[in-house]
Amino acid sequence: MKRVSVALVVFLALSGVPMTTPVAAQRDAQAISERTYQQLNRVHALMQKGRYEDALAGLDRLRPRVGHRRDELALVLQSYAHLYATREKYPQAIAALTECLALEALPDSATMRTLYLLAQLQMAVADYPAAVTTLERLFGLQRNPAPAARALAGTAYAQVKRYPEAVEQLSAAIQQADRPQENWYRQLLAVHYQSRQYTAAAELLQRMILLFPGRKDYWLQLSGVYAETGSQTQSVAVLELAYLQGVLTEERDLLNLAQHYLYTGLAHKAGQLLERSLRDGAVTATQENWALLVDAWLHARETDRALGAVERALESAAHADLHLKHAQLLADKEDWSEVVRATELALAGDALTRRGTAHLLAGIAHFHLQHPREARSCFERAREFDRSRHQAEQWLQHLATSQLYAGSHSPQRLSP
């Protein structure tokens, strides 16, 4: 009776390659009967055609006949596992492989492949402790595990919170592979985050950016790591470099960079970025975005540019709060007539968020224009709001004092 190499059959069963041509048995390999080989060949041919029920029936018929031979039973169990895995019935596949390994009938090379497949299936069903046990058994047989096996082990260790082993295995996988998978870097980065190794995370992200410069999320994560460790200057520098490299193009990214500029005292850069982005349409001309530009120029002590920005904003987004901001900037320039007009426009809008402030500012403008009756009316309205009540009462007192003073002296302009 013709015999076939066990190692070859196991490889074919694991890889899904149809078994077609018998080959000469390896000298140190066990052998199976030609009949068993042919029946397994038919089973795998049925699987290749998608006839899984027929393949399962064939294995069910074959299993009792080979039950007394551990080597042949091991191969049948391998085929069961292949069939179940193909149909995504992972628990059944795991049970078949576990039973197969318990027979201890496979050559070392086949045992190692089976262990690796078993670990992958255990990871697929989130049985991470079992996967760790399987991989440690595999590594006990292998002197130099393949990078993919090390990466799988690193992921399994991470899932059971054994972070030092996870770092060791993932780092080794990346170092040993000719072309490490990007996902291995991402998994190692996740381990650094989970174990709060932020310095290591920053160093890894720098490498990842060099390898994958177009991946925006790596730039953002590196900036976030620096922010987490208190290095705000480095955090904004990373974002700025990403912007200059053309990686940051979405509106939310540009606004985020502008806010980082403001937070770190780089208001002038924030103003330039926002002004350019609003002009080019990269940032939507909303009331909030225009207000952010105005604030940037104010923080940069560029009052004229802030005033110009709010006037351009009012052309495209005539929001009541922008009219109030306009009035405040005009007050800085002591253009009181225009302040009155701007506050009237602000108060005419239903969406005004600080009505008390608008009434207060209108009262101050009327005071300087020597309109005491209008000023008093505005201050009394401002007094109705919590945020402006205290200042309004002070101005009412000041108005009363100035009117008494004006009654016995020649009129003159008084400032609070």
Write the layout of secondary structure elements.
Layout: E1 3-5, H1 6-15, E2 31-33, H2 34-48, H3 52-66, H4 70-86, H5 90-102, H6 108-124, H7 128-141, H8 147-159, H9 163-176, H10 182-194, H11 198-211, H12 216-228, H13 232-244, H14 251-263, H15 267-280, H16 287-299, H17 303-316, H18 320-332, H19 336-347, H20 355-368, H21 372-382, H22 386-408
Helix pairs in contact: 1-4, 1-6, 2-3, 2-4, 3-4, 4-5, 5-6, 6-7, 7-8, 8-9, 8-10, 9-10, 10-11, 11-12, 12-13, 13-14, 14-15, 15-16, 16-17, 17-18, 18-19, 18-20, 19-20, 20-21, 20-22, 21-22
What features would you describe in this structure?
This protein is mostly helical and 416 residues long. Among the domains are: 1-143, Alpha Horseshoe (Serine Threonine Protein Phosphatase 5, Tetratricopeptide repeat), CATH 1.25.40.10; 318-416, Tetratricopeptide repeat domain (Serine Threonine Protein Phosphatase 5, Tetratricopeptide repeat). The chain contains 22 helices and two strands. It has helices at 6-15, 34-48, 52-66, 70-86, 90-102, 108-124, 128-141, 147-159, 163-176, 182-194, 198-211, 216-228, 232-244, 251-263, 267-280, 287-299, 303-316, 320-332, 336-347, 355-368, 372-382, 386-408; strands spanning 3-5, 31-33. A two-stranded antiparallel sheet has the order 1-2. It is elongated, with a radius of gyration of 38 Å. Mean pLDDT is 87; it is low at 1-29 and 407-416.
